[in-house]
């Protein structure tokens, strides 16, 4: 959860484009067109100059892609040196042939780079069902080292599908840096994981603590975000730490990791399919943070809330509906308070209809809409802050087209 | 759940328009314009000529309208004689004033009809937040008897909001008849209840069994239906039995009630906001029926499945995603089987891509799309059949307009 003390963090989170000293030392990128997509780059590789401490969280979708169990197995020793991503076909529902293809791609990358295949993580995104065109892909994986670059842009473009913007964020923690890059703009309600996000740091972080740190960061960023309630079969977040910048204070690193993941999550919802507005739902006054998360998710996932915000309609009754449908015991009108931005609309049983026009203007004029819900069921000390986006005709347009 | 033996029921379910002997004896209707809406009828009353045995199920939304607790209290003795419905304002989040208004409307109806106010159920649908214009409404409630008619059409029009069709179904069970009328086309994922549905029968059914019968019927109809995942604050289903046609066999009555509620549920999803297609998801091979319901709901509620069907896109990978995101233990590709209509697309690990064009044609040419999911986790003896609809640009258009 995003909690209050995080407001005191003053580290600057760098946005796109990120260059030079705001990139971590020791990581490089490769990208190419290998024939999965018609005419766009569709293969990306991240290469670390040494073996990194690493941790990852994956989709909880039970019908997951073949990359997921392979990745889980490879992360057992908390080490990685490269990540190879194919884009256009998700390698899901592809059985033993799909697994063999993923392993063959990792082996080819390892052989070309002269590193251990065990330290190469496979990832895939795209259409569910078809097999990868392995005969086209393997011959393209050679002389990787000759084409490596510290510029991540072509790598991110190569792994993107319906994304319209490059998603990348970085943050400095002392001499160290965290870089997070990713893709994703539909089929997004990650659960314990997310779309594809790769994070690299030159901080020296203990293997034993890396997973817990990643999990905390993911829980207050990608796990409180939803575009369309649809949990992908391939969601993956990986963090690689190569140690080249030396040790940093664990608390400072955790705060930086939280900030950079939250910023990247906001990049993802703002580039969601058809989205015109980011919706941030801040829930206080819950008895436990799980209640806050359930209610925040119910609001950002409600088609009627999402369409109202798309149309700048101050239809606060839909917030009431979405909160109440969670069936959480103790919800009541007498202690409920609702605000859009700075404008109160309902407070302890009373409607503030004089603010309706102000709210309409607020919704019209802002690309990020903040909703504040105080349940009043407990003192409002902490905030659960959930991210989502509006629902537009363009979302329907994009997703009703023939197999995208 | 809709189970196999129901296929053997041969009773004809009558559709709109229903007249004469296909209506139950002893129920009449009233409708008028009372000034909630600008220029449409907005008050409807159902009147029984005698006190009826009655049962009702209501929304589980915790921030429900004031009509809900009033109705629950009135149903304690399982008796009703009239139902009064206001349309345009939902009387939700209106506090003590809202409750007093609902009680005043019931009292006015009771006084005019010379019946007990305890036996008049209030119902309301429309925008959440505002108070009812009670000073306009009360003077209009007089001389009801002079305007009563056995034709339900104007009543249903008066209670409708964004509905574009009259929803009514009836069925004969021996000499008795069940009539079900209702409204609802958005904010629909009922939970233990549904939108507004009123059912009248002249069968003589014991008070003590009426609720259980209603619950069984609702569980295999309105409770396995979703338009948009949004559970209304005012959902209500009421069944009134006046006994004028004498006793009927309880099993035959239950079957008839199941059939007529299922048919009305299908009417509601087919007239859902912006919908162009009904989606029926039939799930077999589950270990318990709750798994079947969760998976069926996950599929009909997936925006990516709904938009694919809107675009006649045979994107079966989205079924895989929606099934897997339920995280039900035991799901696996090796025992999974997927069909659209008569066309197999995935079976025990193998894709039948030769059927893709047939499925595309099937989706293009049918207003009702049947999806068959066999999980293969247990013998496929029974089917859970969930109803939904596609997601179109028109849904976004309707719901992004200023406070609808």
Walk me through the structure.
2 copies of one chain form a homodimer. Chain A has 404 residues and is of the alpha+beta class. The first copy, chain A, folds into 2 domains: 9-270, L-amino peptidase D-ALA esterase/amidase, CATH 3.60.70; 278-400, Roll (Ubiquitin-like (UB roll)), CATH 3.10.20.340. Helix content of chain A is 29%, strand content 25%. Chain A is built from 11 helices and 15 strands. The first copy, chain A, has helices spanning 67-74, 95-113, 134-137, 153-159, 207-219, 250-270, 289-301, 303-310, 317-324, 356-365, 393-400; strands spanning 13-14, 27-32, 43-58, 79-89, 120-127, 167-173, 176-183, 196-201, 236-241, 278-284, 337-340, 343-347, 350-351, 368-374, 384-389. In chain A, strands 1, 2, 3, 4, 5, 6, 7, 8 and 9 form a 9-stranded mixed β-sheet that branches. A 6-stranded mixed β-sheet of chain A has the order 13-12-11-14-10-15. In chain A, a hairpin with a 2-residue loop joins strand 12 (343-347) and strand 13. In chain A, helix 5 crosses helix 6 (250-270). The longest helix of chain A is centred in the middle third of the chain and has 21 residues, at 250-270. Chains A and B meet through helix 8, helix 9 and helix 11 of A and helix 8, helix 9 and helix 11 of B.
């Amino acid at each position: 959860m995003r909690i209050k003390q995080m407001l005191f963090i003053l580290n600057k989170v760098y946005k796109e484009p990120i260059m030079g000293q705001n990139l971590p030392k020791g990581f490089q990128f490769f990208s190419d067109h290998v024939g999965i997509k018609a005419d766009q780059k569709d293969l990306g590789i991240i290469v670390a100059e040494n073996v990194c401490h690493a941790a990852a969280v994956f989709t909880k979708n039970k019908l997951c892609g073949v990359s997921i169990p392979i990745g889980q197995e490879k992360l057992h020793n908390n080490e990685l040196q490269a990540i190879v991503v194919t884009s256009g076909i998700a390698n899901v529902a592809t059985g033993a042939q799909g697994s063999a293809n993923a392993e063959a791609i990792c082996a080819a990358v390892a052989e070309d780079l002269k590193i251990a295949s065990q330290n190469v993580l496979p990832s895939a995104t795209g259409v569910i069902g078809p097999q990868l065109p392995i005969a086209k892909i393997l011959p393209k994986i050679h002389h990787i080292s000759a084409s490596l670059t510290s510029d991540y842009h072509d790598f991110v473009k190569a792994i993107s599908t319906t994304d319209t913007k490059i998603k990348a964020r970085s943050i400095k923690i002392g001499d160290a840096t965290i870089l997070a890059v990713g893709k994703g703009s539909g089929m997004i309600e990650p659960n314990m994981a997310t779309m594809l996000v790769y994070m690299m740091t030159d901080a020296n972080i203990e293997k034993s603590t890396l997973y817990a740190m990643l999990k905390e960061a993911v829980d207050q960023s990608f796990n409180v975000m939803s575009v369309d309630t649809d949990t992908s079969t391939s969601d993956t977040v990986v963090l690689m730490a190569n140690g080249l910048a030396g040790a940093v204070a664990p608390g400072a690193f955790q705060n930086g990791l939280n900030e950079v993941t939250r910023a990247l999550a906001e990049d993802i919802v703002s580039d969601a399919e058809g989205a015109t507005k980011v919706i941030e739902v801040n829930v206080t006054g819950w008895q436990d943070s799980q209640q806050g998360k359930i209610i925040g998710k119910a609001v950002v996932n409600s088609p009627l809330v999402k369409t109202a915000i798309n149309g700048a309609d101050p239809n606060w009754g839909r917030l009431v509906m979405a909160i109440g449908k969670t069936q959480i015991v103790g919800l009541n009108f007498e202690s409920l308070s609702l605000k859009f931005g700075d404008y109160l609309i309902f407070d302890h049983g009373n409607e503030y209809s004089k603010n309706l026009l102000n709210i309409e203007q607020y919704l019209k004029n802002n690309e990020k809409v903040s909703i504040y819900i105080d349940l009043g069921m407990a003192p409002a000390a902490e905030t659960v802050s959930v991210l989502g986006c509006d629902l537009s005709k363009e979302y329907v347009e994009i997703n009703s087209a023939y197999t995208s």
